[in-house]
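Our preliminary data section would be incomplete without showing what the modeling component actually yields. Below, a chain of 503 amino acids is followed by its predicted structure, encoded as tokens that our downstream tools consume directly.
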Amino acid sequence: MDLVHNLSLGFGVAFTLQNLMYAFIGCFLGTVIGVLPGIGPLATIAMLLPATYALQPVAALIMLAGIYYGAQYGGSTTAILVNLPGESSSVVTVIDGYQMARNGRAGPALAAAGLGSFFAGCVGTLILAAFATPLTELAFKFGPAEYFSLMVLGLIGAVVLASGSLLKAIAMIILGLLLGMVGTDVNSGVARYSFDIPELTDGIGFIVIAMGVFGYGEIISNLAKHESERQVFTSNVSGLWPTKEDFKRMVPAVLRGTTLGSVLGILPGGGAVMAAFGAYTLEKKTALQPGEVPFGKGNVRGVAAPESANNAGAQTSFIPLLTLGIPPNAVMALMVGAMTIHNIQPGPQVMSSNPELFWGLIASMWIGNLMLVVLNLPLIGIWIKLLSVPYRWLFPSIVLFCAVGVYSTNNTTFDIWLVGLFGFIGYVFIKLGTEPAPLLLGFILGPMMEEYLRRALLLSRGDWSVFVTRPLSAGLLAAAVLLLAMVLLPAIQSKREEAFVED
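Predicted structure:
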């Protein structure tokens, strides 16, 4: 009954005209930011943080939260339509979403992403309301050794995730890990692999690599083709809504993605990203039904599952923030900043000292998710119209938006040159038939893995056995070894090669 009482208190707070207005502003801004390549929620929330001084604490947090989960929705739009992941968690959506758009099924892909996101967002909010306290205790059991093992499992999962050659997939992950090492060493403060270039001492930005490899690489590849060979989407755009068959395949994928996203979102360190990659890997392990499109060729499950997972992960990442005061990612760290601006100390006492704020924020998330569906589904037709823009106009505008997005993150022209370089590398990858998604996962997880590895060894005084003596860490490493063994087994490997043979 407590839960019902608390939720009614929350909805009472959220349903005021002011809070509804700020929830809408947050959701709208989030969607726009997600759609525009390169301008992520992190930069936007950082820019808007001073503007929240004048607002009530509840209204400020409702708006900032709306920007965060709204960007998860919007990020899938550009990922599907123009092969540009607007957000790190949308990297996986690119694989099948873009192929669906190329096959004239951009509408069903966008609808699958929107509906999956809505369901996962609602479930994530309910989990946040019902299980915040017990789930926090689970997060407490994760120390540096467990996080390291979890990320090893994530990277092994990326090998399974990649299409084509196993050797190429491993090479891409290693390249991603190496790129992640560029910058300043966390412990000693010494610049690594910076080649005396001052701009590289801060490391290479995720946006730079994502935009270059996916966006510019695809553009160069398309421009290299003769006009008659180029993919023109609009010539065969079929329905804007998923078919009955699509819904039949989507529903179990959405349920699996939501469950996985809800669990991984609680854990610090890129919960939504890990969830999206994990959900896609899980779907690939699930047998294809008769007549179903293979993964990597435009399978609707490859869109619905990761989009559900990253939204569930985005919602449940508020659990460690609101119950422990520990931000699980950079966006949540800004939310901590917003709370301290308003003299609210994040942590377990928020629930008891500021119940209106705690439950009002939770209730606003459900309202926000509903707003996003109402906002996004009618816009599908408009987004599809983007595809009818002639190539000669579309490409320069993508290049321009990417350049603006990349420049706005660090205000340096060096990043634009770097994007150009990674664009060329992306084009080489397309020519070699390698999948860039594992590279990005290696790049995202690499620095975090290194940090947790060194922290675990520091705490155990250099004893490597800490990774196998702790039960949870040993279990995760055992799962990683088992997964790798399954992939390396000759019978499975031959099947894998068959599944990913290029037409």
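DSSP finds 23 helices and two strands in the chain. The mean pLDDT is 80. Preliminary results of this kind motivate Aim 1 of the renewal.
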